[in-house]
């Protein structure tokens, strides 16, 4: 199964592109469409929002997602295969920054243009992707050093 998700906002262009591709993909396509206006006609199943997308991530062979940080990190931390699509309607380009970095590191396929979504899905099916390992968290050390320095200056 391929699971497409756009998060809690709207990304009708991605939903519509997945809907148009669904019959040619040779497997079930399920989508979470958020607040968008476009309602799929060719997918096996779709819904707007759910309390958790975890059951869909677990069932999916591949996730096609907007470039939202929370969604991207959740899929990668679960070891899922991911095609990320940046939403050009976002007020800044943070999704492009995130997807570009993770694509260069080999963790996902970045689809920069929805006209290339079919090719990106095919590439995700054959390309070896590297597992994502979160960097070590050192904030506790930074806070400890700050507090020690503060005590010394008092």
What is the topological layout?
Layout: E1 2-5, H1 12-21, E2 29-32, E3 45-47, H2 54-59, E4 62-66, H3 69-77, E5 82-85, H4 94-104, E6 109-111, H5 117-126, H6 139-153
Parallel strand pairs: 1-2, 1-4, 2-3, 4-5, 5-6
What share of the residues does DSSP label as strand, in percent?
Answer: 5-15%
Describe the strand arrangement of the main beta sheet, using strand numbers.
Answer: 3-2-1-4-5-6
Low-confidence stretches: none
Mean pLDDT across all residues, rounded? 94
Euclidean distance between termini CA atoms: 61 Å
Count every helix, treating DSSP H or I runs of 4 or more residues as helices.
6
Tally of extended strands? 6
Global structural class: alpha/beta
Question: How does this structure look, described?
Answer:
The protein is built from six helices and six strands. It has helices at 12-21, 54-59, 69-77, 94-104, 117-126, 139-153, and strands at 2-5, 29-32, 45-47, 62-66, 82-85, 109-111.
Short descriptors:
alpha/beta; single chain; 154 residues; 6-stranded parallel beta sheet; 15% strand
Sum this structure up briefly.
The chain is an alpha/beta fold. It is 40% helix and 15% strand. Strands 3-2-1-4-5-6 form a 6-stranded parallel beta sheet, sandwiched between helices.
């Amino acid at each position: 199964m391929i699971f497409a998700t756009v998060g809690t906002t709207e990304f009708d262009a991605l939903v519509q592109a997945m809907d148009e591709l669904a019959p040619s993909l040779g497997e079930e396509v399920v989508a979470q469409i958020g607040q968008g206006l476009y309602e799929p006609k060719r997918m096996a199943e779709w819904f707007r929002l759910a309390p958790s997308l975890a059951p869909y991530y677990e069932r999916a062979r591949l996730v096609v997602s907007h470039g939202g940080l929370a969604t991207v990190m959740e899929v990668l931390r679960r070891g899922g295969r991911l095609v990320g699509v940046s939403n050009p309607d976002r007020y800044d380009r943070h999704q492009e920054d995130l997807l570009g970095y993770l694509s260069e590191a080999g963790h996902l396929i970045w689809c920069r243009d929805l006209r290339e979504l079919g090719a990106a899905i095919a590439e995700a099916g054959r390309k070896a992707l590297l597992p994502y390992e979160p960097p070590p968290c050192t904030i506790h050390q930074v806070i400890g050093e700050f507090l020690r320095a503060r005590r010394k200056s008092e």
